[in-house]
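Hi support team,

I'm opening this ticket because the web form for multi-chain structure prediction keeps timing out on my end. I have pasted the exact lines I submitted so you can reproduce it. The total is 706 residues across two entries, so I didn't expect it to be a heavy job. Is there a limit I'm missing, or should I split the entries? Thanks in advance, R.K.
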Amino acid sequence: MSVIDRRIRGFRLVDVIALGLLVLLIMSVYLAKTIASRERAEIASVERQIASERAQIRLLEAEVAHLEQPSRIEHLSSTYLEMGPVDVTRETTADSLAALAPPKPALAAAPQPEAAP
Amino acid sequence: MSLAGVVTRRFPFGLRWLGAALWRLEHAFERARAAGRVEDDARIRIFLVMLFFGLGFGALAMGATQAALFSGSGGGGGPGWMPPQARADIVDREGRLLAADLLHYGLYVDPAEVWDRDATRQALARALPDVAAERLDRALTSDRRTFLVGGMTPIQKAAIHQLGLPGVTFEPEQKRVYPLNHTASHLIGFADTGGEGLAGAELALNDDIRSLARGSGEMALSIDLRIQGALEDELRKAVQAYGPKGAVGVVAHVHTGEILGLASYPDFDPNVASTASANERLNRAASSVFEMGSTFKAFTVAIGLDTGVATMASTFDAREPYKLGYRTIHDYHASRKVLNLVEVFQHSSNIGTAKLAVGVGPERLSRYFTALGLTTAADVELKESASPLTPKVWNEDAVASTSFGHGMNVSPLALTRAMLPLLNGGKLVPLTIRKQAPGYRPEAKRVLSETTSAQMLQIMRANVTGGSGGKADAPGLSVGGKTGTGEKYDPEIRRYNGKRQVSSFAAVFPSDGPLENDRYFVLILLDEPHGTPETFGYSTGGWVAAPATGQVITRIAPFLGVSRHIGPLANQPRLASAPSAPAILGEAR
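Hello R.K., no limit was hit. The queue was backed up. Here is the completed structure from your submission:
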């Protein structure tokens, strides 16, 4: 008996296999679409969150730039910290530090051993 | 001829195999009919139809699966989406933010969805006190959804959103924000709500800023915010001290032409540019032209040296006023002696400079002025760059006048550009507001010799150590420079008015070292300053502009990596002819 003629409980085997394949295909497409749409929604949510965070970061950057504008920093540093431009007399190079260092105090004379009686 | 024969001869193997298979299949049907087994024929046909449908459905299923899982679409409006009016961030040369598009919200009212009109009106009026009551009423009684107010920050939006007003909705929008407010406002400029630049760098670099926005890039300007801050602060102090109607400050790199700082007073807040007056929005560095006065003597002396008409040892008789045609030229404070070229510069002698210019001659002088870019608008990206006012005829009178900065009006940026060849080895470099790569040296035409440039550095240094620019000296920084005081023409009295002056100081630092070293030009200009008791009533460049210049240089040198030397400098120019600090500070023009 050929495969085409074989029957299971009155149904042709070929028809049963074809129906099974059809159901499998429908189920797989349904599952794929469902999983994909869930993933897509999650991705979209994360992307919205990223966009929102980026917008917040840009706002904060602008706020920082506003707070750090030179005139404001200068006003605050001079008013509250009494800071100002460094005077040239207080500026030197690393190589010149040795010359500026105060001289070392002379070493105290080592105590002489007492003479033997 | 059979189908098999045709297929065998003309088609490739794959098609030949398919043709042969179909041929055998057709014969199978024929064989089945011939054998009287019609049911086999029908079964085979049904099987084939199902097979083809199955294959087609399988292909469709695979396509659908791929489209669902691997299409890569993240939905519209994601982070890659960019509104059409988007503009890139503007930053300074160190990446500090100067201008940015920030997310804001527009508020819309749809009267059809408003439940309680009076409650909504009261709530919105409390939350938006700047919105006129008539405008609010019009929105609430309109027959369609109406835009009420834009540019709301996320915090403002959240506050109104929490009121829970039906019919009140929001839509995201980008708004151009300038977080530094007044700082560098004239250089940065501003853009309109449609994303088009209207002034400053926003206008000059509009196309680049728009295209950079599509690539999420940023536009780096040449200015350094620290230098800009120091420049503006010192300019503000000078304005407070001397009360001019306007003021300008410029810092530029002499080799690259990069503008490191540009300030113009009065200034404005580009966030609310429409509320600023035209006077406040005027970029005096680029758009205003002035008779610069004695700073022009630097050009005349450089031209005299470059043409060989004079050397540093050449002498000029300034004992008597100089009669030239119908006019007599005086020195502001006559030295009444024979001056060498360096002394002419130090005393800012009109007589000596005019005699030198006459020696150069009208043709050569005008040719040099043109070569230095003084007869055209400053070569810089800013669209506001104004054209100069130049003499119609280059006769002896024009030569004498322009030699000491009269009869010719140029913008501070044009003066800056023309000064750079005197200080960089003789090359006319274009000014730029774009940040350039390290080591950048633009293609530039030589307009002066290197020798002339080196001599001008020495002469300008001598003017600070022993001439009219003494108050610009910054300890340890080898500052050179030239004072300038130009009287303004007064239409009411139809002549120059000695009480209305343009006082300036054009400086260079460091003036020592090899020509190719990094060097910086600083210009401070005050328009109609007023003398004070501290300046003994003088409002000349040496008294009001030079001190501010010295302060600017002292403050910006560390940012530029220029080291300060205490004590005698190894390469400091020492001119045998330089006088020992004569008391000519306030007298020189």
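A quick check on our side: The CA atoms of residues 14 and 369 of chain B lie 83 Å apart. Let us know if the file doesn't open in your viewer.
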